[in-house]
Every structure is written in C-alpha cells, then in structure tokens.
Design a protein that fits this description.
The chain is 11% helix and 34% strand. The chain is mostly beta strands and 299 residues long. The chain folds into two domains: 167 residues, Chitinase A, domain 3, CATH 3.10.50.40; 126 residues, Chitinase A, domain 3 (Roll). Strands 1, 2, 5, 6, 7, 8, 9, 10, 11 and 12 form a ten-stranded antiparallel β-sheet that branches. Strands 13, 14, 15, 16, 17 and 18 form a six-stranded antiparallel β-sheet that branches. Strands 3-4 form a two-stranded antiparallel sheet. Strand 14 and strand 15 form a beta hairpin. The longest helix has 11 residues. It is elongated, with a radius of gyration of 22 Å.
Length: 299
C-alpha cells in the first residue's frame, strides 16, 4: 500500500502539479498533474441534463456541470487511479492551456475534490477512451484549486471549460502487485515499500555512509522498457553513499548491500521519480522502476 500523501500528487508534462499546486500555460496549477500529446476536438452531447447556450449538460451530485461526448464502456476511475489524458482549458473565447504544446500525455491522479463541484468529481466518471468537457467557475478554480488570484481581465464567476480525452487509466499499486506475481517474487517489502531481491552474494566491504561506491545497473519500467544501462555504455556510476546523488529507493537499497552483491531493487514512484517522471519522458509520472544492480567496488 502506497503512503496516502502520494495519492494526492498530480503531474503535467514535466510541470509539477501536486495537491497544493497546479501548472498550466506557464502558471502554477493546483491538485492535479496534467500533460497531453495533442489538441483534441470534442463534439456531441449527452441526451439529458441542463441546457445552456445550446449545449446539453449534466451535473454531478456535487454540482459539477459536464458534457460526456463519448462514453466508452469500461471501468470508471477510482481514487488513487492515474488518468492519462489529453487536456485543454480556457474560457469561451480564449485558451489558457493546450496540452499539445507539451507533446506528452497528462497524468492526473484521482483525489478527493478540492471543493464541492470541483473538477476532481468528474475524473471518477471517466474510463479509458472517454471524452468530456467540464464547466467550472473561474474564481473557484483559481482561488480554491490553483490558490492564485484571478488573471487580469477574468471576471468572478466567468466559466472555465476543461476538455479531457482519456487515453488510459492506471493504478501503480495494482500494476506493481501484478508484476510481483508474474515474476514469482514473494519477498516482503521493507517498511518504506521498497523491494530488494538478492541475485548474487559478494564477500567485500559493506556499503556505508561516506563510502565511495562503484555501481553497475540496468534500469527498467515494470513492462521491461529499459531507460538506463551503465553496462551498455561501460560507465559505472561512482558516488559517495549518503550524498543524495541517488533517488531515495536506490539509496536505501544499495545501502543494504556489500561489494560483489547483485540485487534487483523494485522502487515505487514515491521513492523514485514521483509525479514528475524523468529521463526526458522515458519514465512516466507515477511509475514504479526496477534497478538490477551490482556493487563493483566499495572504498
């Protein structure tokens, strides 16, 4: 089980948007992480609901107005799930954020609403393949979600439109457990949630804070996608243990080893690259990563 504080993080195309911050169009955004690969055009409407300016809208129990343009059969997102989205938002006559500029999908984690009728209420209506538009008052969005003043020229109560197209719905914890089952890994996690699976036993000096460590590793995602490999470039990582050079999970895992040891270290995102991802987009936000390591030297 991942720590609950990490369920509140959201990400957007290299821009950090966490529980207290959002990012859009160069502005800091709050409580959601977004990114998207291209502009999308939403069309159509739902058959029943509130009609406004030629559009037929439905409301959630909390009062969030929306139009479901395409409702793909599938399991709706739940709290803790991560939606991979295309997104654009703005007023009726201006675009404030268009995710096509980032050329990466937006990763948004489902959390409890920041206010009654907040955008988060709409996320749990969605499944992979859905497209929808959500309508919110600008002052609520900026004051209660972005925690910023209204932009110059924007009126209190002016409507913001969030257009979302869902590419995928993921759950890091479920994906991790599936990986462990498929790999027949029955090791228990450490208190932090880290998994360390011994692959080879060495006989050298233990890794301690202050030691100079030489490390070879192959780094992959859960699906086997490789994003870094010191052996391929014949360039082992040399670092001082405790110098905070490594991601938290790798620092913890290597600290359990000694010279000559080989191990597989399975690192949940909150001990790795968290809501931002890394390696120029090769590691998506909210991704568990795996490091197969060998401690070559300890001095």
């Amino acid at each position: 089980m991942f720590p609950p504080q990490h369920r509140t993080l959201w990400a957007a195309a290299g821009l950090v948007i966490n529980r207290m911050r959002w990012a859009a169009s160069g502005l800091v955004i709050n409580r959601t992480l977004w990114a998207a690969a291209g502009l999308f055009i939403l069309s159509g409407c739902v058959p029943n609901g509130e009609k406004n300016a030629g559009e037929v809208r439905t409301k959630t129990p909390g009062g969030l107005a929306y139009i479901m343009h395409h409702d793909e059969p599938g399991v709706q997102a739940e709290l803790g799930d991560v939606l991979v989205l295309q997104m654009k938002y703005g007023t009726a006559d201006s675009v404030l954020f268009d995710s096509r500029l980032n050329r990466r999908p937006v990763y948004v984690q489902c959390t409890n609403p920041s206010f009654r009728g907040g955008l988060e209420e709409g996320l749990t209506l969605l499944s992979a393949g859905d497209t929808a538009t959500f309508f919110l008052p600008a002052d609520s969005v900026y004051h209660r979600m972005f925690h910023q003043p209204l932009p110059k020229g924007m009126r209190p109560g002016e409507e913001l439109r969030f257009e979302l197209a869902v590419q995928d719905v993921r759950n890091e914890e479920k994906d991790l457990q599936a990986y462990l089952r498929n790999q027949s890994i029955d090791a228990l996690p450490r208190a932090s949630g880290l998994y360390v699976i011994r692959l080879g036993q060495g006989s050298g000096a233990p890794v301690r804070d202050g030691a100079t460590v030489t490390l070879h590793y192959v780094a992959t995602l859960l699906d086997g996608t490789e994003f870094d490999n010191t052996r391929k470039r014949n360039d082992p990582l040399v670092f001082i243990k405790g110098s905070t050079v490594l991601i938290d999970g790798l620092e913890e895992g290597v600290g359990l080893l000694k010279q000559g040891d080989k191990a597989r270290i399975v690192i949940p995102s909150y001990l790795a690259f968290a809501e931002k991802g890394n390696y120029a987009g090769l590691v998506p936000p909210f991704s568990t990563v795996i490091y197969d390591v060998e401690v070559v030297g300890v001095k």
